[in-house]
Amino acid sequence: MRFHGLSSLSRQARDRGLGAPWRAALLAGCTALVLAGCNGGDSNSPMSKASRTLSPKTLALIQEKDMTKSSPIVVRIFKEESELEVWKETAGGDYALLKTYPICRWSGELGPKVKEGDRQAPEGFYTITPGQMNPNSSYYLAFDLGFPNAYDRAWGRSGSNLMVHGDCSSRGCYAMTDEQVQEIFALGRESFFGGQRSFQVQAYPFRMTTDNLVRHRNNPHLAFWKMLKQGSDVFELTKAPPKVDYCGKRYVFNATPTDPGQKLQASAPCPDYTLPEGLEEALAARQKDVSTKIASAGTLQPAAPVKTGKDGGMHKVFLAKLENPELSAPGSLPPVVKPPGVDYGVSTTEPAPAESIALANADTVSETVNVPLPAARPDDAPGGPRTAIAAAPASGGFFDNLFSGLSPAPATPAPAEAAASTTSAGAAPNMVLLPPQAGDAPAATAGTPARPPERAALPQLASLDAGSNGGFLDSLKNWFGGSPPPAAAPAEPIADVPMPPARPPVPRQATAAPAAQPARVSRPAAAAPTAASSSVGSPSVASSGSEALPGAVPTLPGAAGILAPGSFSTVQ
Predict the structure, then answer these.
(1) Is there a smaller number of Cβ atoms within 10 Å at the N or the C end of the chain?
(2) Which residues have C-beta within 8 Å of that of residue 541, sequence separation ≥ 6?
(3) pLDDT: is 551 or 317 the higher one?
(4) Measured between alpha carbons, how far is 414 from 417 in angstroms, rounded to an integer?
(5) Rounded to whole angstroms, how far apart are CA atoms 554 and 327?
(6) Which CA distances in Å does 519 have to 228, 258, 273, 284, 288?
(7) Distance from first CA to last CA of the chain, Å, rounded?
(8) Which residues share a beta bridge with 142?
(9) Is 520 helix (H, G, I), strand (E, B) or coil?
């Protein structure tokens, strides 16, 4: 479906000199017609997925925590714990934790993303605008983190299409499962409908506690992590997202230049700046605690390994489900996934090999895993089979037009991340071998390769009910300024990879893990990401509100407070 009419009417209203209220009313009427067309009978269309309602259970939790459906949000990501948190503003103006979601898969090691193709998931502070929300994602739904930001660019870092998306496969992204990303996407969408122009993502290597920094004291990224911890501390102390700026090739938080004519620029030296009253003292106290404990750490306190060779991580609830498919988990898994530390895919319908679970749980593995991941499932995403999405017209699709007045710059939708994977002939029924890597000896194949067992189709999810658009349409009058919509990049189809030859899995054994400043700041020196610097401390973040997993199934470890399956509205 093309939406040239919406942009055309907007331009006509602007050319005729109609005021903002008239343009808003005109666009609201056109939007209502377009929404009706988008949702008419196509439950798998991008806009149908992107506009599904929050579940009654989640809405009740929002009300219980003195929040509203459309109040602003903040997203926090912790790699080592494989958890994503959504915080929401309460009626009192502070932010509180709404929900904790387990991450199904992230890739790379702890540390920032440096260059395209390094498989690293980004760490840092990123801003998500409506233009970065991608209903056309090859992995169900997604939003682009906006990497590289100004800090990343100041250090010459490169990368693109780094997402939070569905499914359970990653090459630098955070994969959440389709059901979970459905709700996270909806929470972000509702915050935009409520007037939030962008929401912040804080991506950390681990929870920024003093103990974790002491444990990672030998890591070359320690100085970078101490800098991120300052932002984490500001969030915890103020109960609000920090104001993020850049100068001297570093992050600065809640800083105000002493000279109003001075600007904070990422690649320029920092001018003199001040912090809010009381914040500097609180940060200094945390900094002193971290510095003291790192200095006093001895050989009896083991340091975490710098590299694990595992290629990322997976939350323990998903590892437990791979070990026992009968267990419940927050979101469905594709037919094949690749656990951390393993260079072959395993079936999710049968118990995974004990070796793969052991490697995924090990502190380190014997060699670095850097192989393609299984493809996103095409047949069992929520709402039915996933189909290819046609590229948006050059003038911008509906979603881009809808938010063109809000987004400062267009974002490129994510292409497909991986190619299709199949089960090789002769392989064990619960393993799927990936294409042989360079240097592998060729192996003969016989017969027709078997396909991984199919999962049962999931129930259809409800579309957005007609009454739920009221707040959205009311809010349009303050949003549309008549600016032309950004152009959307075409989505890339999933590659058609030939069948790999059979190759028996090579068992491997896990190896042991190797053993504030004054309120007026004068041009701090640039902090290289590999150099040690002073640090700040932080207490642990408040735990999530508990939501036990439903059903008479064994309880998974770490399942408290995690999004449960089947949590989307089924009311038509």
Answers:
(1) C
(2) 76, 85, 97, 207, 236
(3) 317
(4) 8
(5) 6
(6) 19, 10, 8, 10, 16
(7) 24
(8) 134, 165
(9) strand
How many domains are there within the chain? 1
- β-pairing verdict for 142-144 and 133-134: antiparallel
**Residues 486-533: pLDDT tens digits?**
444 444 444 443 444 444 454 444 444 444 444 444 444 444 444 334
The reply to whether omega before 148 is within 30° of 0 (cis) is yes
Helix (H, G, I), strand (E, B) or coil at 34: helix
Q: Mark whether 173 is an active-site residue.
A: yes
Q: In this structure, which amino acid lies at residue 144?
A: D
Catalytic residue among 38, 104, 165, 270: 165
User: How far apart, in Å, are the Cα atoms of 452 and each of 319, 362, 429, 494?
Assistant: 19, 27, 8, 18
- Which residue in 173, 216, 221, 247 is the catalytic one? 173
Nearest-angstrom CA–CA distance, 89 and 129:
18
> Which neighbouring-strand residues pair with 174?
106, 164
User: How far is it, in rounded angstroms, from Cα 80 to Cα 78?
Assistant: 6
Widest pairwise Cα distance in the chain: 76
Q: Are 488 and 410 in contact (CB under 8 A)?
A: yes
Contacts of 464 (CB under 8 A, 6+ apart): 39, 48, 51, 52, 53
Respond yes or no on whether the N-terminal peptide bond of residue 339 is cis (omega within 30° of 0): no
- Helix (H) / strand (E) element for 282: namely helix 279-296
Token reading at 408:
């400062």
Query: Which H or E element spans position 230?
Result: helix 222-238
Pairing state of beta strands 142-144 and 163-165? Answer: antiparallel
pLDDT in tens, 36-92: 333 333 455 667 899 999 999 999 999 999 999 999 999 999 999 999 999 999 999
Residue 511 within any structural domain of the chain: no
DSSP 70: T
In a domain, 159, yes or no: yes
Evaluate whether residue 231 is within a structural domain: yes
> Is residue 401, in this structure, part of any structural domain at all?
no
Three-state SS letters, 283-345:
HHHHHHHHHHHHHHCCCCCCCCCCCCCCCCECCHHHHHHHHCCCCCCCCCCCCEECCCCCCCE
pLDDT at 245 over 50: yes
What is the Cα–Cα distance from 183 to 208, expressed in whole angstroms? 26
pLDDT cut 90: percent of the chain above it:
55
Question: Coil, helix or strand for 491?
Answer: coil
What is the CATH number for 150? 2.40.440.10
Query: What range defines the domain where residue 138 resides?
Result: 50-297
pLDDT of res. 300: 85
Are the C-beta atoms of 357 and 431 separated by less than 8 Å? Answer: no
Q: What percent of the chain has pLDDT over 70?
A: 56
Residue type, 109: E
